[in-house]
Amino acid sequence: MPAIPLNQKIAVGAVFVSAMFMNIMDITIVNVALPTIGRNFHIAPTAVDGIVIAYLVSLAVFIPASGWLGDRFGAKRVLISAIVVFTTGSVLCGLAQNLSELVLFRIVQGAGGGMLAPVGMAMLYRVFPPAERIRAASILTVGTTLAPAIGPVLGGLLVTDLTWRWVFFVNLPIGIAAVTFGALCLERSAPQEAGVFDLPGFVLGGSGLGLLMYGVSEGPLKDWSSPTVLTTCAGGVLLLSVLIVVELRSSHPMIDLRVLAGRLFRSSSAIIFLTSAGFLGTLYLIPLYFQDARGLTALQSGLSTFPEAFGVMLGAQFASRLIYPRLGPRRHITAGLVGLAAIMFLFTKVGLTTNLWLIRCGMFGLGLMVAQIFVPTQAASFAMISPAATGRASTIFNTGRQVGSAVGVAILSTVLIGIGSTEAAGGIAHPNLRAYHWAFATAALFALAATWFSLRIHDSDAAETMVRRGHPPVPATDQPVPVSGSVA
After folding, report:
1. Which helix (H) or strand (E) holds 455?
2. Spatial separation of the C-alpha atoms in residues 321 and 469, rounded to whole Å
3. 219 within 8 A of 195, measured Cβ to Cβ
4. Which residues contact 217 (CB under 8 A, 6 or more apart)?
5. What is the pLDDT of residues 372-400, one digit of tens each?
6. CATH number where 184 lies
7. Over the Cα atoms of the chain, what is R_g?
8. Within this chain, do residues 233 and 364 fall inside the same structural domain, yes or no?
9. Is 352 buried (19+), middle (13-18) or exposed (0-12) by CB count in 10 A?
10. What span, in angstroms and rounded, lies between the C-alpha atoms of 205 and 215?
11. Is the CB of residue 406 less than 8 Å from the CB of residue 221?
12. Is the pLDDT confidence value at 459 over 50?
């Protein structure tokens, strides 16, 4: 059936942002419900971590295949199928009768979620020419950074007023709307030349990333010296090392590492990895400070975190309309990273009686600054990537974002646990704010480390994306990366 006539920029943007919003919100909204789920299934609080880890590992396993699937079967078909799988998995999670069923259905969710981001982003950048990428990036950033802020608020409301099962059922109406709209309005894209299925790449990439994500997620909980953690992390690194050798020798690699030879894409990918680690790590840490150290409820914590979303929405508009076309990616991203690090360092001064409105202002600033990183990075990163290589590049870009998020949470958790989030005084446990302060400082170091890569960006590589309204695009000085992904 032919698609309903509609501007494909609107159609792809609406479906992709809806899918990503649902996918990313799921992580934060489920975290709020974990204690309640543990009590409902009569299991120890430490046992519920499998609910989160199963999802993260499943994401890591299926992300590598997403680019090939999108090229082979058409992006529309794969994107809609991924949303269906994710939504079905969500409903099954809500119906789970025990922990084993819930973990199994989280794996189903992760299978769909792992394909959403790479395929959807590739579609987005194929319908938006370079001159309009900054507009696409601002739309994408609002959706993907609004979700982590809304998740805790919505999760607190659902768990408190209804049941934990609704943190999964809430995905059903969003999923149905996205699938229906996509089926009717997305134009069917012609399959790209995908080559034969790279089975060694899929096995090595999926198992390597899966083991690494498992080890990184379990490290803070079981201790990094645990044989299980050491074995899975070492196994993951070993398999990924073998993957690099195998994929560089393959004529049709599933994970095309050659795109990282391009300086702009390589720098952008590193920035996304490090910024995701610091930003998502901070969004994980802030609720712990509010709830464990200050004794706020999950809902109060979520409402105090929510100003970050307003900061992102406002910051994305400033970034796309005013700042990026004038400054270019190099100075724009660097300024955002420095601002983000400064705010994270300010969080090292919070105490038990710090005015909540000051912290909420800090959260607003956090969102404002992260928009100055994500919007220009996503706008510029694919400027030198050809349309045929976009799917494979998107796989690598989103893998870095996902792994960076997990690494950030793991490292900040390790700092918090290592120093000790509580300390005894007079036989009574009290919050140890020093642990939170060191964790916030660690998050800031991630942002500062990313400036090393932002300062190596050449604005000339992204010239076609630096377009002011009413002005023609500036011609790029370099040629796009060819289909093979080699350097221009």
Report:
1. none
2. 8
3. no
4. 49, 52, 53, 56, 57, 406, 409, 410
5. 998 889 888 887 877 777 777 888 888 88
6. 1.20.1250.20
7. 22
8. no
9. exposed
10. 15
11. no
12. yes
